[in-house]
Amino acid sequence: MPRPIHAVIHQPALANNLDVVRRCAPDARVWAVVKANAYGHGIRRAFAGLRGADGFGLLDLNEAILLRELGWQGPILLLEGFFQPQDVPLLEQYRLTTAVHCDEQLRMIETARPKGPLAIQLKLNTGMNRLGFPAGQYRAAWERARTLPGVGSIVHMTHFSDADGARGIAHQLEVFEAATANLPGEATLSNSAATLWHPQAHRAWVRPGIVLYGGSPTGVEADVAQFGLQPAMSLHSELIAVQELAVGDTVGYGSLFRAERPMRIGVVACGYADGYPRHAPGWGDQPAPVLVDGVRTHLVGRVSMDMLCVDLTPCPKARVGSPVTLWGQGLPIDDVALASGTVGYELMCALAPRVPVSVATMSAPETRAEAL
């Protein structure tokens, strides 16, 4: 028998979250961002839940080709663009839209001389300082791009650094407006946070990522509770052992947890080799939460490669074989991430290949799981 750990991808939750985005940005078209293998959910598994989007955004050329093989005929956007001149014919072959963020990419298009029309999104650096033309060089880049043989539509593009924080987007939006003033073309600016909280930046297209998977852009689940997002990934296991501790007994490597009273703990078939964060705390004032038999409890001790331990005090009837939820379905992934000093994005993307994954194709309670 295999280990009891398994993940479930909930396709109805993906579709629900896409509907949430459309309600937040009713006048915009939606790039569903499926980079990093759909944030760890799997392109194949996520596709059915998100195929109501207007387009898909990702980084990897092979993942873009996979979407075409799955039957997607709509737009696909390469968010970082392309990397070699020999990629340009593939953009044409698979009808891909590409970000263009530097002079080198313009030069590669010029050299490749695509037959076109090649759709590009010209990226403006408005203060994120990762990719994009500086504001003072943007107009020259736009003029150059529109004269290149084979280039068709040009969309203005930028990315916000603080749409989920107190600083907000006003400083970047001001740079964007000045740099693109009187230039024709549509625009795409909004990530998940801007889609939820900054309607003035929606424009023709929005580019949601984490919210499509039920996570919060801020990493705090309470910040998105009113929107009705649903977790698209849940991670489950079982208790494989139960231990009785006396006062002073310790748990796990490094003896970081010491029992202050007699207590029962459960051993769960899940560890950092499965993608659960090793740095999730099982000691101190805010240990990472876990559900056992549907009851919220928490880690005790350090996470091991293949196992972790949980306090069974809130669930005295728990025994070997009792179900455990590591995140999702009653336990927001953001709660686990927050306790672990990270964000839900990382936990989703870190799900290990050795964890079996099934797909739920109907909403609970009428959920039907299909192995994939």
TrEMBL record:
Reactions performed catalytically: L-alanine = D-alanine
Broad class of enzyme this protein falls into: isomerase
Transport among keywords: no
Function description: Catalyzes the interconversion of L-alanine and D-alanine. May also act on other amino acids.
Family under the similarity heading: Belongs to the alanine racemase family.
HAMAP family tied to this protein: Ala_racemase
Record-given protein name: Alanine racemase
Gene field: dadX
